[in-house]
Each structure stands twice: as structure tokens, then as C-alpha cells.
Design goal:
Order of helices and strands: EHHHHHEHEEEHEHE
Mean pLDDT: 96
Structural class: alpha/beta
Strand order of the largest sheet: 3-2-1-6-7
Number of helices: 8
Number of strands: 7
Largest sheet: 5 strands, parallel
Length: 196
């Protein structure tokens, strides 16, 4: 069987022009709740900048503050609405959705690999009929527990998740798109690196 290409895309700053994480909370909860909520996390933001607090734990704490206890179906609708908003506002780059569609038409396997949560990565990937590896939320009796069900899919964890899922020797090429140091470990797997 003829080998095909594996194409791995980072999401935030690569497919999008902005970080989708704060955009989700601002769009979903409005300006006042967004700013008042994020103000509570200022000490943790500062500790994170000083590399004294884990970024994954910070993300988990923020998501728990806003979303804990909400039904999975409602959270999924929030994610779907965000993707429609990002498309309408051209925050999702048409250039990159065109690339995705071209790769698919050429027979490549396309995967988004992102630290952002599945609540909006999943609807984006379903829209374009591609696969994804990302940070996943944990639910109990269909309600968000406030925790992740997987490690934060960033830095080395991107590489770990890719190698768990894909046997790279099966592909004729591994093409990786990224935009920051968070993608460096994923780039180590590439036969073709494309920095955005």
C-alpha cells in the first residue's frame, strides 16, 4: 500500500491569529465576568511567568472556575459557538483551512495537535473532518468535574501523544506546522518543519 503524508498542525497562533483560550471565556461569559474572573488568577499568572507554577494547572484552575458542574452538552455548544465566531471574525485563517482541505484532497492524514481543550478543538476538527490530539476535559455523570482527563497537551506532551497514536515510519513524510517554542518537541518528529 502506498504511503501517505501525516500533517500535524498546532492550533493557536498557527491556524488562528490569536490565542483561543482567553477568547473562549470572554466570548462565552462577557466582559465583566471574564475580567473579574481572570483578575482572581493574577497571582498564578505571575508565578507561571516566573516558571514557579505549571501552565497546565493554571489552565485547569481557570476552566474549573468558569465551567465546573456545567452539563457536557452545554459546554460542547459553547465550543461550537466559539468556532463559528472565530471563523466569522477571520481569527481562524482562511489560508490554513484551505491548506487543510488541500492536504485532505491529496490523501494526507491531517491532525490538529493543541494544548487547547477538546471543547472547541473537537468541533473545529469535526467541521473539517480531520483528527485531533489535545487537552481533554473530564466529566462525571455528564457534568464537568473541573479537571482534565489527559495531561495538558503542550511542549513534550505533544510529542508523547503523537507517538502514542501514530507509527511515523508508516508515512512517507511528517509535515509539522507550528509557531512557538511550545511546538519545538513536536517539530523534532518532522521530516518537514514549517514555522508560521
Amino acid at each position: 500500500m502506498e504511503k501517505k503524508k501525516l500533517v500535524l498542525f498546532d492550533f493557536d497562533g498557527t491556524i488562528t491569529t490569536k490565542d483561543s483560550f482567553p477568547l473562549f471565556f470572554k466570548f462565552t461569559f462577557g466582559g465583566f465576568k471574564f475580567y473579574s474572573g481572570f483578575l482572581l488568577f493574577t497571582p498564578l499568572f505571575l508565578l507561571h511567568k516566573l516558571k514557579l507554577y505549571d501552565g497546565g494547572k493554571l489552565k485547569e484552575a481557570i476552566q474549573s472556575f468558569y465551567l465546573k458542574g456545567i452539563e457536557k452538552s452545554k459546554i460542547e455548544k459553547m465550543g461550537e459557538r466559539l468556532i463559528q465566531k472565530l471563523i466569522a471574525d477571520n481569527i481562524i485563517k482562511k489560508e490554513f483551512t484551505n491548506k487543510i482541505e488541500t492536504y485532505i484532497s491529496d490523501g494526507a492524514e491531517v491532525v490538529v495537535v493543541s494544548a487547547s481543550p477538546d471543547l472547541w478543538i473537537k468541533p473545529f476538527c469535526e467541521l473539517y473532518k480531520i483528527k485531533y490530539l489535545c487537552t481533554e476535559l473530564a466529566y462525571n455523570e455528564s457534568k464537568f468535574t473541573g479537571n482534565f482527563s489527559t495531561p495538558n497537551c503542550n511542549h513534550n506532551q505533544k510529542k508523547v501523544r503523537i507517538l502514542e497514536k501514530y507509527s511515523l515510519e508508516k508515512y512517507e513524510a511528517v509535515i509539522v506546522y507550528g509557531n512557538s517554542k511550545d511546538d519545538e518537541c513536536m517539530m523534532e518528529l518532522a521530516t518537514e518543519k514549517i514555522w508560521v
